[in-house]
Structure formats: C-alpha cells, structure tokens
Design goal:
The protein has 75 residues and is mainly α. It has helices at residues 2-9, 25-35, 50-56, 59-66, and strands at 41-44, 71-74. The chain has a domain at 23-74: HUPs (Rossmann fold), CATH 3.40.50.620. The chain has four helices and two strands. Strands 1-2 form a two-stranded parallel sheet. The chain starts with a helix and ends with a strand. The model has no long low-confidence stretch (mean pLDDT 86).
C-alpha cells in the first residue's frame, strides 16, 4: 500500500505518512492529525449498512461529526 501511495502523492509533492497505532480508531486518527498539524483527515468508508453502523459504529462518521479539522470521506 505504501508503494502505491508514494507513487501517486510523491510526484505531486503531497506530504503523507504511514503509522500503525493501537486504540480506538477515530480517537487515534484525531490525535495523529493534531500531533502532525494536519490540515485535513482523509478516511475511507466501507459502505456498511445502517445495522452494522448501529452495532459497531463508524470511524468516518465519528470523525465527520467530532473532528476539529476538515474530514474527507472517500467511498
């Protein structure tokens, strides 16, 4: 995955980083964005249905509603 990301973003001069963390995903993404002074958080959305989201929640949904910076959700 990092090779594909580098192939697309490096020629454009877009800074990016890959890190592995443990914990609640949305909270960790918020903390990571704050630590690195990110202008925006970009996350994917797997497109699970309402039942799945009600039972397990949605990282992208939480970020959209609670993050202190813009969030771009990619489907």
């Amino acid at each position: 995955m990092t090779e594909r990301t580098a192939k697309v973003l490096d020629p454009l001069g877009v800074p990016w980083r890959f890190e592995v963390r443990t914990g609640e995903p949305a909270a960790e993404l918020e903390a990571l964005a704050a630590e690195h002074g990110a202008d925006m958080v970009v996350v994917g959305n797997r497109g699970h249905g309402l039942g799945y989201r009600l039972l397990l929640g949605s990282v992208s949904n939480r970020l959209v509603h609670h993050a202190d910076r813009p969030v771009l959700v990619v489907r």
